Amino acid sequence: MSKKQIEEVVRHSLETYIRDLRGTEPDNLHDMLVHVIEKPLLDIVMKHADGNQSRAAQWLGLNRNTLRKKLVEHKML
What we know:
About 75% of the residues lie in helices and about 0% in strands.
């Protein structure tokens, strides 16, 4: 799957989410979306990095401490 295809999946999902609100205005959409996308991203990267936080942080372009903080926030540690 290409970056473009991932973008289209996200675009479609957001369109569906907003449509399903049926006129109710979304609240804090950015934070909600980041949180929803971040958890599976961290899960998959940690899995493919065999649980190695240093390697996963490098793949994600994050500092290891930042990765650890995010893992704690998502209750993944």
